[in-house]
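Support case: user asked for a sample of complex input and structure output to validate their parser. Sending the pair below.
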Amino acid sequence: MSALRFQILARSASNRARLGRVTTPHGSFDTPAFMPVATAAAMKGLSPAQIRGTGSQIILNNAYHLFLRPGGDRLERFGGTHRFMRWDGPILTDSGGYQAYSMSDTAVLGEDGVTFRSFIDGSKVHLGPDSSMRVQNQIGADIIMAFDDCAPAALPEEGADERRLARTRRIEDHARRLEEAHERTLRWLDRCVRAHARPQDQALFGIVQGATDLDLRRRSVEGVCSHDLPGFAIGGVAVGEGTDAIRKVVEFTAPLLPEAKPRYLMGVGYERDIVMAVAAGVDMFDCVLPTRNGRNANAFTRNGSIRLRNARFADDHAPIDPSCDCEACAGGFSRAYLRHLFTAEEMLGPTLVSVHNIRHFQRLMMDIQTAIREDAWSWLLGSWPCIGAGREQPETDEQP
Amino acid sequence: MSALRFQILARSASNRARLGRVTTPHGSFDTPAFMPVATAAAMKGLSPAQIRGTGSQIILNNAYHLFLRPGGDRLERFGGTHRFMRWDGPILTDSGGYQAYSMSDTAVLGEDGVTFRSFIDGSKVHLGPDSSMRVQNQIGADIIMAFDDCAPAALPEEGADERRLARTRRIEDHARRLEEAHERTLRWLDRCVRAHARPQDQALFGIVQGATDLDLRRRSVEGVCSHDLPGFAIGGVAVGEGTDAIRKVVEFTAPLLPEAKPRYLMGVGYERDIVMAVAAGVDMFDCVLPTRNGRNANAFTRNGSIRLRNARFADDHAPIDPSCDCEACAGGFSRAYLRHLFTAEEMLGPTLVSVHNIRHFQRLMMDIQTAIREDAWSWLLGSWPCIGAGREQPETDEQP
């Protein structure tokens, strides 16, 4: 009895990549899939029709934000987030654990979850495995995520006068914290599975943690995958560690996950991270980069990103990417006009560049799907120079 | 040799209203027409497709804003504002005189125009009849407006210790200022007509001034209409005076304007002001109300406006106006969702409510056109209770 069906339609001849299709109560999406993020049941300035126009088949909502506003009870009365935001395709919600812990300076972690101050009105709020499942059931997304303990992957910074002994203890403390997070994540997963009230409608994914410790990752896979869940995610990646560390963890962890279930790499990322992870066998991705960068006038192109506020675009009559078929590029909006919108603080600028950026990632996914089907990885790398480029090479706003 | 053709297709049996069509180099629009305002070559969050979807056939740009940014030379290199903002229908630009004078505390008025500080970088800028025509030629709108002297219509406020003699002098000063503005407006119109470089592509409209002084209005009509221009506007209305004063001026002035030319009432207004002016023989309107109110969560309905931030809408599953066919209402976006977008500061809220508000005014214009054709004014008033309501009756944000 599962809300989700996963078919693998083809496999790459060169690596572990798979071409597939996930079917949910609100329709199907092709994998490898990129899910743009509609945090608070809205993707910034994009209407559902505009989201659909980017080729996005599934989108992500944030349970933490919806829990605080408009609240689970209200969304339940509405019939869930699909009806609330008028998106009739598949939706995934994350559990809210990461946000509850990271968005509040006063968050307190305990065996029952996280107690924190609401960023809206400062009131004391609690979110844990039971309440997260309850609110995710109320939100009604097709795929919901287990509530996990997201311990910081990086070693805390050293104090200025730290001695050798202190450093050893700091490393030991961090290792103990990761171990504790691992064990708590498994206990919470048990609670999530028990608390999940709608398994026939909503597919619960487990989340593997373990930071950059491969032994911990292996043990996390064993524990999390002991549950027969419809899908599994790799969490705690791309939280500040370098691209090599991401590669090491993903290439180690993805193949350990059940072959027949969709694999979701949370919060990743740049084009080359996605291609690397697909080759390691990952099927699903989400990232705020297209919309967050879009809001800041940073546009993705196949040759790398460009900052549209740069004065050199003031008389540039070309679209962001002449090869792009998005509403902004195919609509003939020039770089000069987009730059004007940002300097004049017109909302249309963030909307159009976000539309373009999401389409950029969806076109990448389509080409990745072609690369898998036709074993055309060299063609992919040749068509997308940004994959070979450094992870983040933003232009400066000013000309030299 | 004119860039504009005006056909009167029907006349009301009950009043001076006319049904017509204006044809420009970028297509036609039906009159009475409502022109939404895309100040800086963008209508806030609306794409041209969304503007078109509201039924808008002609839009307005602001020469003052485009003069300062991105500048006339840049727009000319682009081939004008149509190509810049990707709107292929008719566009009207105002002259910038009103903004230059009213948006700067340091504006200095002289015989050659207004010198003021740019709101962008504080630099000293000059705009007058010659430079306004030049920049409007560069922007390339289908209809351009004469640069006029917009003297404040209202009597300046009295000082706290004003004596009777001082009051008399204040009234005399104001009358002298209006007289001076009238004469200067006529001198500037001569200069505009001479400076206009593209009369075959762009129709220049003259603007009648005179505040609430009907004798001055009559003399202004005589002076302005001594030029054989393709259209005429009534300026200096709805600048703070009450709805009765608006009615007095419009009902006096509109019938004095040439019968065969389109008549444009600048910056008006609320639904009942528009219906009153149509009945007096006005053909064209513009107003920022739909977008400005939309940005602030104030939605127009046939029964009056509603403030969507109000808590009473938090669980309201109905659209803004169940009878409306706009992207927001027909798309099924509820008042509760729109309220959520505003409280969560999501850009989609202002966009959707602006779309609705513009559509509200376009549907009013369609019904006005029907009322003229079928002499159905009682039907119009019955269908639009807001026409009979007070000029501005905003709801409070809080419930009692």
